[in-house]
Specification:
Layout (H helix, E strand, L loop, with lengths): L6 E2 L5 E2 L22 H8 L7 H25 L11 H39 L3 H5 L19 H6 L5 H7 L1 H20 L9 H24 L9 H14 L4 H22 L4 H34 L1
Antiparallel strand pairs: 1-2
Length: about 325
Amino acid sequence: MGPAGPAWGDSGRRVATAERPAIVAAGGEAPRIAPRTWEDRLYDGLRVACVPPHVREALAGALGAAGVEAEFFLLLARDLGAFPGPLPHARGEALLRQLDAAARRIVGVGAALEVATQAYLTALEAGYSDLRAEAESAEPWWPPFTGFALDGDPAELRLRRCGYAYRHVVAAHLGPALEGVAEQMALTLHALRTLPPAGIAPAAALHAGLYELASSLQGYTIPTHIASHSEERPGLLAAIARLAALDAAEDTSIAADIAWAQAQYQAARRVQMDALGGDARSDGARRWATRGMRDWQDVIAALEAVRLHERASR
């Protein structure tokens, strides 16, 4: 953590201390009551006197675009979750097209956000001496972020209901890529929804938060979870393309999925049996295999439920 933040004066307004200067809102006016929407928070939170208006507006626009894309992406990530199925294959195709298009827009948003953030932080550092060094140890303005978890069934089961093979979605690594992007989008919204008006957050907290949002999106999420072509950890764009290729070339029946899951269960069971009566290393393998068996039992049960729904809908 950085040094203590600005103190409160007798009037109830923040005053500068020797440890850290208070941010001065543009025009020298007192901070306004925190607005209700994250869109309004952008302009109030970035309205720092030492930053030129056109620089503030550029960053507000870039963050606004990031917020809009974040909201839309999270809506897509949660799609199909309320439907026990089955659903038309075209529904899944449409969802994947939307995810692909959204991911490509996020790539552009990340580039624009990086440029706008660099300009804003340069101006902010010019107004506050030693700010960059102080921001390196400061916490961002937002309260602790608990992460993102997709409610309900995983992406593999949601797409299975649309006729995509469960094992193909697994092989494409679509779920981890989707969740990685969704986590960044959830963090972005968490930050925007808690951005305080200028004059409330210390300068170092504002600097640290803006830097983290831009660098984590452009420096990690986009290259790792969107644009990567790694065989073992493809990004979302490559995962969607891989799933489309598997879907066109191989059996997508629910029976083939269940047979595959049962084979995975039997493989884990063989590991467990081989590890019986072994040493400490074998104990670890046995525990791993036991967990794997439980997980595959859950997958098999879920796929059997999908098969029942498919039969009932005929």
